[in-house]
Design brief:
single chain, mainly alpha, Na+/H+ antiporter like fold, two-stranded antiparallel ribbon, 16 helices, 71% helix, 3% strand
């Protein structure tokens, strides 16, 4: 009887643990953010294609002005979203990049090698495919659209699978997507800047130097960095370089070290971690869905399947669906076989391929770069948005199905395992 009670108690504990694990997965910020992103996209599409579509345009074109006489900023609401809210998104990206470089999965050349190689392959292949498709066409300016991966959406899809995939695959995809975002930031800075203005650019450069000096001086008050960051954002906005870059610069300048404890509590977080934890829920649960709501309202009435055959749309779809998986998987395979790094524990090539397909979810970043490349309210921009939505949906569904079939274990054959062990030995 007692044995039966112990068995029942153990069963209840297991059930509670499984329920807790399920709730943890269901309410993970990445997963909820991905769900809200899908809902916001659906709302935007319905709103822009029904009888109340005029209100959609009216809302996002409403002009808001801040400041005072002689110094004011006046922009349509959609530009406040794309310039200001996305700068906060990129601030979080900057914080994550710095954290990974210092203490995370990118803190040593060997750890960073495979995700970095995979990210570079995942950027070059889509860009090359887009160039081949759109070469000679005016839409070729959008070559950067299929280059970037949507971190929130891709990780949200992966979290939906829970324990059916190795936990280390989540780390691999996170590192890959962060490096991918760093590449996208460089592309935006170098290729999608407007006409630059020297004085604001010089002020932005000076403020960047001040931020570095403040960091080096040991200042740890986040408010100091926020004030300087706001000034940097305004100067960058006025310079012609996209204002989101200010977010990345500020993120990299936030101190990551923990001050000496002294008489303070033993457990204390660095300013970087404090700000990262404070921003993450707002970015995942509010800023990214608002961005999708403002930018995903494609007018389907004026589009047809024929529009998907345009150089821009075809280049985006092929770049995201074919280029991403081809670039990420082949670069990862080459990096491992050349002994430059190794796959994470329990991750097999089927997992890598599934993650490569998920890498084709461009969504937020792709929509953002499309707005920079083609502007808003024209047929080219609408074709690009529709192509991004279709390609991202295909990659999300395809990646999930592949990973479901791959299972939670690596699935490596003995020959593969031995081969990778030899690669590891040679590298060491």
């Amino acid at each position: 009887m007692q044995a039966q009670h112990r068995k029942d108690d153990a069963s209840r504990v297991t059930t509670r643990d499984e329920a807790a694990s399920l709730l943890e997965r269901l309410f993970a910020p990445d997963l909820i953010g991905g769900i809200l992103l899908i809902l916001a996209t659906a709302v935007a599409l319905v709103w822009a294609n029904t009888g109340v579509s005029d209100s959609y345009d009216a809302l996002w074109s409403t002009r808001f002005t801040i400041g005072f006489e002689g110094f004011e900023l006046s922009k349509p609401l959609i530009l406040w979203v794309n310039d200001l809210l996305m700068a906060i998104f990129f601030l979080l990206v900057g914080l994550e990049i710095k954290a990974e470089l210092l203490t995370g999965e990118l803190n040593s050349p060997r750890k960073a090698a495979v995700p970095a190689i995979a990210a570079v392959g995942g950027m070059l292949a889509p860009a090359a495919i887009f160039f081949m498709v759109a070469h000679g066409d005016s839409s070729v300016r959008g070559w950067g659209i299929p280059v970037a991966t949507d971190i929130a959406f891709a990780l949200g899809c992966l979290r939906m699978l829970g324990t059916r995939v190795p936990a280390s695959l989540l780390i691999f995809l996170t590192a890959l997507a962060i490096i991918d975002d760093l590449g996208a930031i460089l592309i935006i800075t170098l290729f999608y800047a407007h006409d630059t203005h020297v004085l604001p650019l010089a002020i932005a450069a000076l403020l960047t130097i001040v931020l570095v000096l403040v960091n080096r001086s040991g200042a740890r008050r986040i408010s100091i960095y926020v004030v300087l960051g706001v000034a940097l954002w305004v100067a960058t906005l006025k310079s012609g370089i996209h204002a989101t870059i200010a977010g990345v610069i500020l993120g990299v300048c936030i101190p990551a070290d923990v001050p000496a404890a002294g008489d303070k509590p033993a457990r204390i977080e660095s300013p970087l971690r404090v700000l990262e934890h404070a921003l993450a829920p707002w970015v995942n649960l509010a800023i990214i869905p608002i961005f999708a709501l403002a930018n995903a309202g494609v007018r389907l009435g004026g589009l047809s399947l024929r529009d998907l055959n345009s150089p821009a749309a075809l280049g985006i779809i092929l770049g995201l669906v074919v280029g991403k998986q081809l670039g990420i998987f082949s670069a990862t395979y080459a990096g491992v076989r050349l002994g430059l790094g190794s796959l994470p524990v329990e991750v097999g090539w089927r997992h890598v391929y599934g993650a490569s397909v998920l890498g084709g979810i461009g969504f937020t970043m792709a929509l953002f770069i499309a707005a920079l490349a083609y502007g808003e309210g024209n047929s080219l921009a609408e074709q690009a948005k529709l192509a991004i939505l279709i390609a991202s949906a295909l990659c999300a569904a395809g990646g999930i199905l592949i990973l479901l079939r791959a299972g939670s274990t690596s699935g490596l054959s003995a020959e593969q395992t031995a081969g990778e062990a030899q690669v590891q030995d040679r590298a060491e």
